[in-house]
Write a structure and sequence with these properties.
About 55% of the residues lie in helices and about 20% in strands. It is α+β, with helices and mostly antiparallel strands and about 200 residues long. The chain folds into two domains: about 15-75; about 100-180, Gyrase A, domain 2 (2-Layer Sandwich), CATH 3.30.1360.100.
Length: about 200
Amino acid sequence: MIKGNLATRPFYNEPAVRIWLFAAAVVVGAATVFNVAQMVRYSRSDTELARQAANDEARAAELRAEAARLRSTVDTRQIERASIEAQRANELIDRRTFSWTALWNEFEATLPQNVRITSFRPRLEPKRGNVVTISVIARSVDDVQEFMENLEKTGAFPEIFPPSERTNEEGQLETVIEVVYTPRAAPAAPAPTPEAQGSAGR
């Protein structure tokens, strides 16, 4: 009959188990510390963001109040009067810079032999600029077409609109042409030659 001492401890690897348990405890403890640190950091970050958001909202409210105050102090009538006066001043400047002689020279250079201008009337439009209405008398549609082509070739009339035509009692073609007129810059005067400068100094 085999006899055994039941009082003996059968686990001979108890030190290894303790080591593993200690290591697991260390890992759990480190994870807990890390989590707590992260919670504290995020809590501080949320507090800082909330404070910054409150400051931004307060600043936005101040700016809105300041904008409302400025709007209330603006005199809309005065702004409208200033705008009208500026528009009138611009119109006067445009009229002064408009050269009737230059426009008539353009017509003389482009007018076919069988076309005669009876009247022309310029006007200033905000979007299109100088618009000129030209009334002509011609013998045929081809003559009017030639006149329009000549105007376009100059480069001073970037837009030419379809004309309105009718035949008068004398059998002549009366045509009204509307064009946009952009005055061409005057050619720069040539620089004086040394000979001219010398003769001028004498």
